[in-house]
Amino acid sequence: MDIYYGEDDKRLNVMIKNQKGIDTSIGETNEELDQDVNGTYSEAEDGHLLTITWLSKNENALYKVTGFTPSGEESPFTKEDMVEIANSIIAQRK
User: Fold this and answer.
1) Residue 76 CB neighbours (<10 A)
2) Using the 8-state DSSP alphabet, how is residue 14 labeled?
3) In sequence order, what are the residues at sequence separation of 6 or more whose Cβ sits closer than 8 angstroms to the Cβ of residue 91?
4) CA–CA gap between residue 75 and residue 71 (Å, rounded)
5) Residue ranges of the alpha helices (H) in the chain?
């Protein structure tokens, strides 16, 4: 599932990929999320591309949330916003 949201200068993409039966890794985790879920957070393009990725607790689903900002504009998202969005999705999937 791939969902795109855009409003004014906010552009957000949420991807959920079925990983059932696939041995997968998200690499070295660097962000503790709610419910003992670990994820990875990264910034690229001078802060214009923010990404947080995690696996579901049973490792059957890969979640990836990306915030986009066009070059030359200040990002409407912060790392804290991305973590809050991830935690909101985790809470809904409980």
Assistant:
1) 15
2) E
3) 34, 35
4) 9
5) 79-92
pLDDT in tens, 39-55: 999 998 777 899 999 99
Handedness of CA 84, 85, 91, 94 (dihedral sign): negative
* Contact indicator for 75, 47 with CB cutoff of 8 Å: yes
pLDDT at 47: 73
Q: Does this model's pTM top 0.90?
A: no
CB 76 within 8 A of CB 69: yes
- ∠ CA 17-56-3, rounded to 5°: 40
In the three-class reduction of DSSP (H, G, I as helix; E, B as strand; rest coil), residue 22 is classed as: coil
Q: How many residues does the chain have?
A: 94
What's the angle, vertex CA 16, arms to CA 31 and CA 68, rounded to 5? 65
The pLDDT confidence band at residue 94, using thresholds 50, 70 and 90, is low
8 A C-beta contact, residue 70 and residue 48: yes
